[in-house]
Q: What sequence folds into this?
C-alpha cells in the first residue's frame, strides 16, 4: 500500500535546509585545511586539528541526518510515522551539535571525529577533560535521537509487514508466494534499522566507558576493544547514511524512467547480504593491528571485496538497465541521483583495493583513504541528498537542465572528480593523511586539491541557494506537464505523490 | 608498488564510470531486447570468481608473516606524544628486520619511509599491545619513521630516523 501523502514534508524540507547549509560549511572547513596544507593559508596546527575534528564529525553527522530525512520522507508513502518522533530526533541532533561545536571551538577539543581511545584523555594540554566529555555527550545525544528514530521506523514496519523478516523480503528469498511484497524503501529501511541500531548501541557503550575513563582515569579501558567498538560504530554509521539516502534513488528515478524500481528476489538477497557484510567489514580499518587474530583481518579483506558485489551487480546494474532505452529526461534531480550511484560504485574500487592487507601496508592512513571515502560521499551520499533537495523544489514537471543548473552540476562534479583524484595520487605518493603541516614536495598537490575543493564549494552553494530559493518560490513553480509520455510516470513532487506509482 | 596500485585503481574506476556513461548515452536509444537476468548472473559469478582468485593470490603468503630465521633482527620501537624511540640507530641491509612496536600513551602508526619519501611498510602502535611487522631493506641509506595515526597537536612532528647499513657476513 502506498500513502498518497507525505505529512511530514515540512519537517524534512527544514532538515534539508540544515543539511545543505552544514554540508557547505563543512566543505569550507575542508577547503581551509587543503589551503593550509598548501601554505596558502596560515593556520596553526592547534586550530587545524580542531577544524579536522569539526569537519569529520560534521560531515559524518550531516550525512546521517540527510540520509535519515530522505528515508523518513519516502517511508511516509508506505507506513504511517509519528511526526513527533522526527522532531525529537531532530532536536536531539541539534542539541548534540551544540555540545560538539562547543567542545571544539570553545573547549579546544581536537581528538578527531573517531575520538580514538585514549586520545581524548591525553591532549597534551590542548583541551580539558570537560571539552572531551562535552564532545562525547554530543555524540550520545545524537545517537539517542537516531535510536528513537529507528525504534519508530522498526515499530511501524513490523506493524505493517508482520515482522522485519517479511520486510527484508524473506518470503521472496525463500520462494514463498506472497501478495505483500515490501517496496525497496521498506527493505532498505528494515536492514538499516537493524544494523545501525546495533552500531549505535555499541557506539554508546564505548562513549560511556570513555566518559567514565575521562572522569575517573583509574577506570581502565582496553585500547584494542575500544578501537574495535569505535570503528564498528563509525563504519556502520557512515555506511547507513548512504543506505538511507539511496531510498531517494529507488523512489524518484522511476518518475524519470517510467519503470518502477521493484523488489525482486535478487534485490532482497542483496540487502540481506548487505545487512551481514556491513557489520563485518570494519576490520579493514584494523589491518595494521597485527595483534588481532588473523581470521578477523582476513574477514576484513574478504568482506571489503565481496560487499562491493551487491552494490555493483544489483543497485548499479539495475540503475543502468532502468536507464537504457527509457528516454529519460535529464534535470538536476535525475543527473545528481544517477551520478550518486556512479560515484558510490566507482568509490568502492579504491576502497576494496585498500582493503587488501598487502596493499594496506603502504596505503593505510595515506591520502588514499580520504580519496576513496570522498568519492562515495561527495559523489555518493551528498549527491543523493542534493538530488533529493532538487526534487523537493522541482514542482510537478520535469524540466531540462537549465543553464545555471548545468553550471552548478558541472562545477560540482568536475571539482569533486579533481579533488578526489588529487587525494588518490597523493596517497600513491605516500602523503600521510591528517597532517597539519606538509613537506615542500607535497605542496603542489595540496594547491591543486585546494582549487578543486573551491569548485566543489561553489557547486554546493549553487545547489543550496537554488533549494532555498525554490522553497521560497515553491508555489510559483510552473511548467508544462509531460503527459502521454512514457517518461512522465508520476510527475508529482514533494508533497503530493500519487497512489500506486512506486512500490 | 604504489604506482601499480594507482594505475590499476584508475583503470577499473574508469571502466565502471564508462559503463555508466554508456547507459546514460543509451537512454535515448530504442530499448533493446536482452536477457537482463542472465547478464546479471554472469556479472555476479564473474565478480565472485575473480574475488576468490585475487583473495587466494593475495593471502596465500600471509602478509603479516614474521621472520623467524636465524638472520632475523629484532628492533623495538616505542611511540609517545610526540616522539619515536628506536632501540638502534643502524639496521642491517638484506636481513629481515622484525619491528616490535608499541606506545606509552595514545595510538600511533609507525610508517617507514625511504629517502624518496615513499612509504615502505607500516604498523599501528597501540597502548598495552605490541604489533609486529617484518621488513627486509634492500637499499642502504637513511630511513625515516613518520606517525601514520592522528595522535594530537604535534602529530606531524612525530618523526625519527635510522640508517640501513651493509654488514659483513
A:
Amino acid at each position: 500500500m502506498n500513502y498518497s501523502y507525505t505529512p511530514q514534508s515540512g519537517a524534512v524540507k527544514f532538515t534539508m535546509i540544515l543539511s545543505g547549509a552544514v554540508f557547505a560549511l563543512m566543505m569550507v572547513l575542508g577547503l581551509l585545511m587543503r589551503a593550509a596544507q598548501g601554505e596558502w593559508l596560515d593556520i596553526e596546527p592547534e586550530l587545524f586539528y580542531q577544524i579536522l575534528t569539526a569537519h569529520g564529525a560534521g560531515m559524518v553527522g550531516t550525512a546521517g541526518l540527510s540520509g535519515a530525512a530522505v528515508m523518513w520522507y519516502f517511508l511516509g508513502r508506505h507506513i504511517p510515522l509519528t511526526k513527533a518522533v522526527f522532531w525529537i530526533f531532530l532536536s536531539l541532533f541539534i542539541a548534540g551539535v551544540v555540545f560538539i561545536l562547543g567542545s571544539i571551538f570553545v573547549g579546544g577539543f581536537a581528538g578527531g571525529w573517531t575520538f580514538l581511545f585514549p586520545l581524548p584523555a591525553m591532549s597534551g594540554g590542548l583541551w580539558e577533560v570537560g571539552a572531551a566529555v562535552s564532545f562525547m555527550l554530543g555524540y550520545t545525544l545524537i545517537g539517542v535521537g537516531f535510536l528513537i528514530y529507528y525504534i519508530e521506523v522498526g515499530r511501524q514496519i513490523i506493524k505493517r509487514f508482520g515482522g522485519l523478516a517479511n520486510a527484508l523480503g524473506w518470503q521472496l528469498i525463500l520462494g514463498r508466494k506472497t501478495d505483500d511484497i515490501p517496496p525497496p524503501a521498506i527493505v532498505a529501511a528494515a536492514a538499516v534499522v537493524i544494523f545501525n541500531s546495533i552500531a549505535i548501541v555499541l557506539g554508546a557503550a564505548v562513549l560511556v566507558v570513555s566518559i567514565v575513563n575521562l572522569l575517573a582515569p583509574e577506570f581502565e579501558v582496553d585500547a584494542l576493544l575500544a578501537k574495535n567498538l569505535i570503528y564498528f560504530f563509525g563504519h556502520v554509521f557512515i555506511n547507513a547514511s548512504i543506505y538511507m539516502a539511496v531510498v531517494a534513488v529507488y523512489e524518484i528515478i522511476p518518475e524519470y524512467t517510467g519503470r518502477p524500481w521493484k523488489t525482486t528476489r535478487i534485490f532482497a538477497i542483496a540487502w540481506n547480504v548487505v545487512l551481514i557484510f556491513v557489520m563485518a567489514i570494519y576490520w579493514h580499518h584494523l589491518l595494521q593491528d597485527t595483534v588481532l587474530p588473523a581470521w578477523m583481518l582476513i574477514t576484513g579483506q574478504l568482506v571489503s571485496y565481496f560487499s562491493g558485489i551487491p552494490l555493483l551487480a544489483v543497485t548499479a546494474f539495475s540503475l543502468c538497465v532502468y536507464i537504457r532505452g527509457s528516454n529519460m529526461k535529464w534535470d538536476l534531480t535525475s543527473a545528481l541521483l544517477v551520478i550518486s550511484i556512479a560515484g558510490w560504485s566507482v568509490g568502492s574500487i579504491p576502497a576494496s583495493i585498500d582493503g587488501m592487507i598487502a596493499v594496506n601496508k603502504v596505503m593505510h592512513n595515506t591520502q588514499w583513504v580520504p580519496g576513496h571515502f570522498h568519492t562515495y560521499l561527495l559523489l555518493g551520499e551528498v549527491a543523493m541528498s542534493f538530488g533529493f533537495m532538487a526534487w523537493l523544489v522541482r514542482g510537478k514537471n520535469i524540466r531540462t537542465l537549465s543553464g545555471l543548473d548545468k553550471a552548478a552540476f558541472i562545477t560540482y562534479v568536475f571539482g569533486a572528480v579533481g579533488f578526489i583524484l588529487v587525494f588518490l595520487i597523493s596517497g600513491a605518493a605516500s602523503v600521510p593523511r591528517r597532517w597539519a603541516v606538509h613537506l615542500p614536495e607535497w605542496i603542489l598537490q595540496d594547491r591543486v586539491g585546494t582549487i578543486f575543493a573551491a569548485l566543489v564549494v561553489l557547486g554546493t552553494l549553487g545547489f543550496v541557494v537554488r533549494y532555498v530559493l525554490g522553497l521560497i518560490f515553491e508555489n510559483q513553480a510552473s511548467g508544462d506537464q509531460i503527459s502521454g509520455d512514457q517518461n512522465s510516470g508520476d510527475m508529482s513532487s514533494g508533497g503530493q505523490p500519487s497512489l500506486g506509482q512506486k512500490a | 608498488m604504489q604506482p601499480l596500485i594507482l594505475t590499476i585503481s584508475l583503470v577499473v574506476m574508469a571502466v565502471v564510470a564508462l559503463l555508466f556513461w554508456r547507459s546514460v548515452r543509451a537512454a535515448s536509444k530504442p530499448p533493446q531486447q536482452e536477457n537482463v537476468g542472465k547478464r546479471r548472473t554472469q556479472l555476479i559469478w564473474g565478480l565472485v570468481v575473480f574475488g576468490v582468485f585475487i583473495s587466494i593470490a593475495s593471502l596465500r603468503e600471509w602478509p603479516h608473516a614474521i621472520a623467524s630465521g636465524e638472520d632475523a633482527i629484532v628492533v623495538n620501537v616505542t611511540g609517545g606524544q610526540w616522539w619515536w624511540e628506536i632501540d638502534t640507530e643502524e639496521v642491517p641491509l638484506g636481513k629481515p628486520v622484525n619491528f616490535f612496536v608499541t606506545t606509552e600513551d595514545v595510538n600511533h602508526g609507525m610508517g617507514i619511509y625511504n629517502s624518496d619519501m615513499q612509504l615502505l611498510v607500516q604498523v599501528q602502535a597501540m597502548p598495552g599491545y605490541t604489533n609486529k611487522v617484518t621488513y627486509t631493506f634492500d637499499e642502504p641509506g637513511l630511513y625515516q619513521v613518520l606517525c601514520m595515526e592522528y595522535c594530537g597537536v604535534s602529530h606531524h612532528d612525530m618523526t625519527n630516523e635510522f640508517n640501513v647499513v651493509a654488514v659483513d657476513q
